[in-house]
Amino acid sequence: MPGLCPLARPDRNCLAPHARRLSPAQIVSPQIFHGSGTVWPSVTITNLINQPEICANSGRHLSAGRTERDTHHVQSPASGGNLQIKSLMVKPIFILNGPNLNMLGKREPEIYGHQTLGDLEKMCAGRAKDLGHTIDFRQSNTEGELIGWIQEAREAAAGIIINAAGLTHTSIALLDALQAAERPVIEVHLSNIFRRETYRHHSYISLGANGVICGLGAKGYELALE
Asked: Assuming Cys at both sites, which of 88, 115, 163, 222 could form a disulfide with 67, CB separation 3.0 to 4.6 Å?
């Protein structure tokens, strides 16, 4: 039926002469376009930030990367029916670093390596780009700030990579925050904590993590992204 696919690209076999691509701004705030005389009693339209291409009449969805879906329901003034629009936005992976990791490259390089925290961030950003992800890289020496970021990740992040450093072995509060965030979590340590002091062998964080990578140095961050 002509006019049934106004959000698709004209080269996608759509009959609507006014079919066009949406800008990112339009995707973040979905708009409804009605062709002359078109009636939409109920239709699902999926918009993608990276590739806003969709054929509503064929139901073909083109996805790109990992996304989180927010669904909005509005009434179609043409028919009084329910028009469901799903706005997909690619969310970053939070990479959270705990106390003293700002001293990387200076503090015990024989254990933690010679790379700085800035070097780690650049490496992670490059690998994330290769994988089609984005990152939000942060470091804090304060337990409360880390907890706040984990709480923020519940709505703002696709997942969490965390090196809680010394708080790994002491912080039940960080564990509680990770479990409440309900995001995929990978715990990372530059050194092999099981070949170090006995008090480092126990991790509270592990109870809230989907996986643990330790002892592989900076490479562990790249593997966590994968």
From this structure: 88
